[in-house]
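go over this chain:
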Amino acid sequence: MIIVSDASPIINLAVIGQLNLLQKLFGNVIIPQAVYNEIVIEGEGQVGSTEVAQADWFEIKPISNRPLVTSLEGELDIGEAEAIVLAVEQKATLLLIDERKARIVANRLGVDSI
């Protein structure tokens, strides 16, 4: 099972002290660099930043299709765009993303999301 996540599901689970649910449910979770940056670099000192930085079950993967990311940035933020493109590239089983608009875009590109 290949799971890709955007930042919000990770941050929201960290806020309620349940980030470990992702590991229990899915094992490894793949995130793009923009999501890592949002949580760990830009969110330094915030809930979830240390947990994500230290968790060995988060895998940061680069994006290959930069033109698709750029085209999606007209509709979405960079983290959402990279998460969707990474899910497409990795042929993800599921994309964890909370924004309705992003789920619609993901579905349009053939990615199942919750």
Remarks:
- The CA atoms of residues 7 and 35 lie 5 Å apart.
- The mean pLDDT is 96.
- The radius of gyration is 13 Å.
- Residues 3-108 form a domain with the Rossmann fold fold (CATH 3.40.50.1010).
